[in-house]
Write a structure and sequence with these properties.
9 helices, 4 strands, 2 domains
Length: 212
Amino acid sequence: MCSGRIDLEFILRAFLKGQDGVFIGGCKLNECNYVTHGNYDAFALTHLCKKILEHIGLNPKRLRTEFLSSADGNLLAEYSDDFSHQIKELGPLGQSEGMDTKLVRFKLEAARKLVPYIRLVERERLRVPVKSKQAYTEFFESNETNALIDKIFSDKLVISQIMLLLGEKPLSTNDISEQLGLNPSDVSRHMIHSSKHGMVRYDTASNCYALA
């Protein structure tokens, strides 16, 4: 399968199913057999997914992409062994990050629910005009791109987590604040915004928010 067909959903689902690391192998950059150069899409996806992992508190080194030719069997074995050793050093997913399995799954699921939104943002605001490794690396490691991603995803990720909590049972602002470690005023701001968009409703009898 072309590495360009790898979707963010695939990677997050792999982690959700308990994989401690994800390795993606693709054709060498600038040696794609198709005009689409799907390996550059995989390259961009890896950069983006690493930033998402950082946002939810997981080590981005748990995801790795390498580009090789069909004649690079020895190199593939070398990369695979190196990645395997690296993941063993990091330990089970969440262990070195100080998160238990339940919290890891909760944060990954919140991120996974944002995939359709992330696809739209990537297509409209995170496309690199020049297909070269240097251009992609400089773009995704630039302060401007990091600031943009922080601005785009921070609030969306919090709201996604709140929606997951409310999917279990109605909660007050303080309940949500305590469970997510957020300032109550920030939770109130998110609730007001979500209420205006018809995502949540406020029950005056219980003083709790619930899914609309």
